C-alpha cells in the first residue's frame, strides 16, 4: 500500500535538511561568482563560528535572542496565527525593561532587579501583542496585517520616546543612560573563562529553559492540546469546548511576552542601555527559525544556532575575504527563508516517491 503522507521524521528532519542544503548550494554558487572558494569560505565560517571557543560564544549569544523570537512566532503558529510582529514586540519589551531599570537600578539588588526587568519586558511585549490578538479574535482583522502595522508603529513610537524622553541631558547619542552594574546579566565567561571576553550571558540558559517549558506546555498539557487543536481546525476545537477567541488572545499574549523577553539578552546582556533599532531584525529572523525548526524545541534551537553562526562566521569571513561583503550573509539568510518557508515542500513529492519505492 502506497504512503500518501510523509512520516513525521521525514517532514520534521529530512525536508528541512534538504532545504538548508539547497540554500547553501545556491550560496556556494554566489561565493564562487564573487571569486572565492566556497569550501575554503565554509571552513573559515565554521572555524570562526563553531570551533573557536570565543567565536562559539558569540554564536550562542546571538542564538539566545533568536530562540526567544523563534518561540514567539512558533507559539502563535501553533494556534494557526502568523505573528509577524515579534520585531515590534521585542522593541517594546526593551522599553519595558528600561523603564524598570531607570526607575529601580540604584535601589534594588541584582537578584531582585533583573527578574523585575524581565517581567517588565514580558509585560510590555505582551501588551503590544494584545490588540492584534483581540482584533483577530473579536473583529476578524487578520493578525498578519495588524502585526505588520504594529511593527511600524512601534518603530515610530520608540523613536519618539527615546529621542524625547530617554536621552540624558547634554548627550547626542539616541539612547538611554547606561544602567547600573546591578542591571547587567551575569556573563558565562565568569564560570567558563575559555569563552573569552564575550557578551554570552545567563540569557542563554534562560532561553534553554524556555524551550523546555514550551515543549512541555505544547505537547504535554491539556492547554497545549487545545492550542494545537485550535491551529489545526477551529471548528472542531470549538465543538470540543475550546473558546477560540480566548485561545487566540492568550496565544498572542504569550507570543508577545516571549518576543519581549528577547530584548533581555540584547539590552541587559550586552549594551546595558536602550538604543534605537536594537532588535536589528531579530524578530523577522524568528519567522525563519520557526519555519525551519517546524515549531519544535530542538528544531528551534538548531535553527537559532545556525543563524547565530551565520552572523558570527559571516563577520569574520568578510574580514578575511574582502570579496565577500557582509551583505552576502543577509542574502544567505533570505535563501534559507525562501527554501524553508515558501518552498518548504519542494522535495516532499520526491521523498514520498522514494519511500514508496523502498516499501514496494
UniProtKB/TrEMBL annotation:
Q: How does it sit in the membrane?
A: Multi-pass membrane protein
Could you list the residue ranges forming a coiled coil in this record?
none
Pfam families, A to Z = BPD_transp_2
Q: Where in the cell is it found?
A: Cell membrane
Q: Does the keyword Transmembrane helix apply?
A: yes
| Membrane spanning residue stretches | 12-35, 55-76, 88-104, 110-131, 143-167, 200-219, 239-264, 270-291, 298-315, 330-352
Q: Does the keyword Signal apply?
A: no
UniProt superkingdom: Bacteria
Q: Which UniProt keywords apply?
A: Cell membrane, Membrane, Transmembrane, Transmembrane helix
| Predominant location category | membrane
Against PANTHER family, the record matches this protein to:
ABC TRANSPORTER, PERMEASE PROTEIN, GUANOSINE ABC TRANSPORTER PERMEASE PROTEIN NUPP
From the Swiss-Prot or TrEMBL record, give the protein name. Answer: ABC transporter permease
Which organism is the protein's source? Massilia aquatica
- What broad taxonomic lineage does this protein's source fall under? Bacteria, Pseudomonadati, Pseudomonadota, Betaproteobacteria, Burkholderiales
Amino acid at each position: 500500500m502506497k504512503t500518501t503522507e510523509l512520516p513525521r521524521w521525514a517532514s520534521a528532519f529530512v525536508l528541512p535538511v534538504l532545504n538548508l542544503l539547497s540554500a547553501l548550494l545556491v550560496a556556494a554558487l554566489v561565493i564562487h561568482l564573487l571569486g572565492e572558494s566556497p569550501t575554503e569560505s565554509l571552513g573559515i565560517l565554521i572555524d570562526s563560528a563553531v570551533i573557536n571557543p570565543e567565536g562559539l560564544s558569540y554564536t550562542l549569544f546571538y542564538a539566545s535572542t533568536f530562540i526567544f523570537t523563534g518561540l514567539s512566532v512558533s507559539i502563535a503558529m501553533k494556534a494557526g496565527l502568523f505573528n509577524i510582529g515579534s520585531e515590534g514586540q521585542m522593541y517594546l519589551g526593551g522599553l519595558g525593561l528600561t523603564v524598570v531599570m531607570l526607575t529601580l537600578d540604584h535601589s534594588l539588588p541584582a537578584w531582585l532587579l533583573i527578574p523585575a526587568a524581565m517581567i517588565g519586558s514580558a509585560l510590555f511585549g505582551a501588551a503590544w501583542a494584545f490588540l492584534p490578538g483581540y482584533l483577530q479574535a473579536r473583529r476578524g482583522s487578520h493578525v498578519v496585517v495588524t502585526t505588520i502595522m504594529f511593527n511600524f508603529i512601534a518603530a515610530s513610537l520608540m523613536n519618539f520616546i527615546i529621542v524625547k524622553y530617554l536621552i540624558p541631558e547634554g548627550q547626542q547619542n539616541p539612547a538611554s543612560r547606561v544602567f547600573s552594574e546591578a542591571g547587567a546579566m551575569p556573563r558565562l565567561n565568569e564560570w567558563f573563562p575559555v569563552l573569552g571576553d564575550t557578551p554570552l550571558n545567563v540569557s542563554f540558559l534562560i532561553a534553554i529553559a524556555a524551550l523546555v517549558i514550551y515543549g512541555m506546555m505544547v505537547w504535554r498539557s491539556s492547554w497545549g492540546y487545545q492550542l494545537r487543536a485550535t491551529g489545526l481546525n477551529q471548528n472542531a476545537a470549538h465543538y470540543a469546548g475550546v473558546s477560540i477567541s480566548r485561545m487566540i488572545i492568550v496565544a498572542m499574549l504569550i507570543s508577545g511576552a516571549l518576543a519581549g523577553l528577547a530584548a533581555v539578552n540584547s539590552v541587559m546582556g550586552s549594551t546595558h542601555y536602550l538604543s534605537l533599532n536594537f532588535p536589528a531584525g531579530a524578530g523577522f529572523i524568528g519567522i525563519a527559525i520557526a519555519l525551519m525548526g517546524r515549531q519544535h524545541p530542538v528544531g528551534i534551537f538548531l535553527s537559532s544556532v545556525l543563524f547565530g553562526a551565520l552572523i558570527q562566521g559571516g563577520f569574520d569571513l568578510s574580514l578575511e575575504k574582502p570579496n565577500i561583503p557582509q551583505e552576502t550573509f543577509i542574502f544567505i539568510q533570505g535563501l534559507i527563508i525562501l527554501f524553508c518557508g515558501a518552498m518548504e515542500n519542494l522535495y516532499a513529492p520526491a521523498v514520498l516517491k522514494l519511500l514508496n519505492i523502498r516499501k514496494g
